[in-house]
Amino acid sequence: MKLIVGLGNPEKRYDGTRHNTGFFIVDEFAAAEGLKWESKSKFKALVAELPDKTALLVKPTTYYNLVGEAVRALADFYKIPPENILIIHDELALPFGTIRTREKGSDAGNNGIKSLNAHLGHTTKRLRIGTRNERTEHMDAADFVLAKFTPSERTVLSETVMPLVKTQVQKFLDGSFEVTKLVTS
Q1: Which of 3, 30, 153, 155 is nearest to 88 (CA)?
Q2: For strand 38-40 and strand 99-102, is the pairing parallel, antiparallel, or unpaired?
Q3: Which residues of 9-114 form beta strands (DSSP E)?
Q4: Which helix (H) or strand (E) covers residue 128, if one does?
Q5: Of 17, 37, 60, 104, which residue is most buried, by most CB within 10 angstroms?
Q6: Cα–chain-centroid distance for residue 69?
Q7: Residue 162: which of 132, 131, 129, 133 has the closest Cα?
Q8: Is the dihedral of CA 91, 93, 94, 100 positive or negative?
Q9: Rounded distance, CA 70 to CA 88, Å?
Q10: Residue 80 in contact with residue 2, Cβ under 8 Å?
Q11: Which strand (E) or helix (H) includes residue 10?
Q12: Cβ–Cβ contacts within 10 Å for residue 169, how many?
């Protein structure tokens, strides 16, 4: 069993924000596969199981900065080692539309990753989606990541980024995940 975890904040007001990129990606993936989300309060998460039962899609219902609690609870219950966990999240340091994968590493200032590292160590796999654009330099970082994507950015995410992400998720599932950087825009 593997976990594919999208990072984000649970309230509706965060839908469509840059910080909810991970939620957007796993929602798109679940919709494409015809999966339904189930609330699992004991895990503090929404969970959707792949039909072949090889992986769970996860949206923690904790806030972004506390996601380690939910992921640790799921990992412990299903006995999933951190190496079999893929974290999908926004990355302010990367240009919009860039996809970068990592096999492990530090939090690089991301509080969600900091929480995951505190609960699981540094060996989870990462799929980082760049959100930086020309407005980044003119806004406070917190305001920028909590701002909504523009309609054109949402189109790029759905039509250009998502197919590449699906390929990377499939590589994770079949054991051929590798460190890579893909630039879409």
Answers
A1: 3
A2: unpaired
A3: 38-40, 45-49, 55-60, 85-95, 99-102
A4: strand 125-132
A5: 60
A6: 15
A7: 129
A8: negative
A9: 15
A10: yes
A11: none
A12: 21
Give this prediction's pTM.
0.94
Asked whether 26 and 92 are in contact (CB, 8 A), the reply is no
Provide the residue-wise pLDDT of the chain in tens; the chain has 185 residues: 999 999 999 999 999 999 999 999 999 999 999 999 999 999 999 999 999 889 999 999 999 999 999 999 999 999 999 999 999 999 998 999 999 999 877 777 778 889 999 999 999 999 999 998 877 777 888 888 889 999 999 999 999 999 999 999 999 999 999 888 887 75
Residue of 130, 116, 96, 70 whose CA lies nearest to 57: 70
Q: Which of 19, 119, 122, 138 is catalytic?
A: 19
Q: Is 19 a catalytic residue?
A: yes
Q: What SS3 state is found at 86?
A: strand
Q: Judge residue 29's burial from the number of C-beta atoms within 10 Å of its C-beta, 0-12 exposed, 13-18 middle, 19 or more buried.
A: buried
DSSP 139: S
